[in-house]
Design goal:
The chain is mainly α. The protein is 79% helix and 0% strand. Helix 2 crosses helix 13, helix 3 packs across helix 7 and helix 7 packs antiparallel against helix 10.
Length: 300
């Protein structure tokens, strides 16, 4: 009896050590890189620490009150980021899904094209921003002078409206290939016999897309919307390299506003308070989106 109990204990210990060996390192890094800094940020959001001094003064909710009552720049950046998110999410997913439909067909070059469309996502945001800055400022101007087309003569990064759409274009160009890969994987999981049966019954391409394909790949829309919403809200590197928040801070994202507050103005406590509020808003948006799309999955 004792031998059997000892064997069971050894097996349990063996399983525990095995799970710890696989999960432990990831859990440790998650704790050090994510959880501890997050809770430290919550603490510092209630202080007036400048990020350098050893003196940390507790101020309670003063930073949060200041954000809501005496910081119009933060709300301007939040409004810009929200508008950018809505435009970027719609455009990125429309392009990504359209490319997936195209490349899911029996094309000889579809694998090469998938690689080509995915490559922009591999390029770093800062480098991509500087490349497109050159295209907008120098490339478009040269094309405009040669062709006399007004579209290319627009002050793409020098005007509030065109700068906004310039950032949206670059973001969509970068991220659409990533969304395409997810949609392609979902489309390949659709049972071809269902499509064939619908075609025999006289369904055209639009009916197939609307009534069969889209309902069956709704989980892919859930993932892609979640990713694009979170990425668009957290945009920083493209914003920094393309416009640096200009002209006159009209294209300043929330992430850039927080960065300037904490690291340029040396008001780390106020910056972390903004980041906590930003985290709550992003979490709220993404939670509502996931709940809505998950409900569509159940209905489908």
């Amino acid at each position: 009896m004792k031998t059997k109990k000892t064997y069971i204990k050894k097996e349990k210990m063996k399983k525990f050590l095995l799970y710890t060996a696989f999960v432990g390192p990831a859990l440790l890094f998650f704790l050090i890189i994510q959880l501890i800094p997050f809770f430290m940020g919550i603490y510092y959001s209630f202080t007036s620490w400048n990020g350098v001094s050893s003196v940390v003064e507790w101020v309670g909710f003063k930073n949060y009150v200041k954000v809501f009552t005496d910081d119009p720049a933060f709300f301007s950046s939040f409004l810009f980021t929200t508008k950018f998110m809505l435009a970027a999410v719609i455009i990125s997913n429309v392009i990504g899904f359209s490319l997936a439909l195209l490349l899911n067909a029996a094309l000889k070059t579809r694998n090469i094209l998938r690689t080509v469309f995915f490559i922009p996502n591999v390029i770093g945001g800062l480098l991509l921003g500087f490349i497109w800055q050159f295209i907008f400022v120098k490339g478009f101007a040269s094309i405009g002078n040669l062709t006399d087309i007004s579209f290319f003569k627009l002050p793409w990064l020098g005007d509030t409206q065109t700068a906004f759409w310039g950032i949206v274009i670059v973001f969509a160009w970068q991220i659409s290939g990533y969304m395409m890969v997810i949609y392609v994987a979902a489309l390949q999981g659709v049972d071809s016999s269902l499509l064939e049966a619908a075609r025999i019954d006289g369904a055209n391409h639009w009916v197939l897309l609307k009534n069969i394909i889209i309902p069956l790949i709704t989980p892919a829309f859930t993932i892609c919307f979640f990713l694009t919403i979170s990425m668009a809200f957290k945009i920083f590197d493209l914003n920094l390299s393309l416009t640096n928040g200009g002209p006159f801070n009209s294209t300043q994202s929330v992430a850039m506003n927080i960065y300037q507050e904490a690291f340029l103005n040396n008001r780390y406590g106020l910056g972390t308070a903004k980041s906590i509020l930003f985290f709550v808003v992003v979490a709220l948006f993404t939670t509502i989106q996931v709940m809505m799309t998950k409900k569509k999955e159940v209905e489908a």
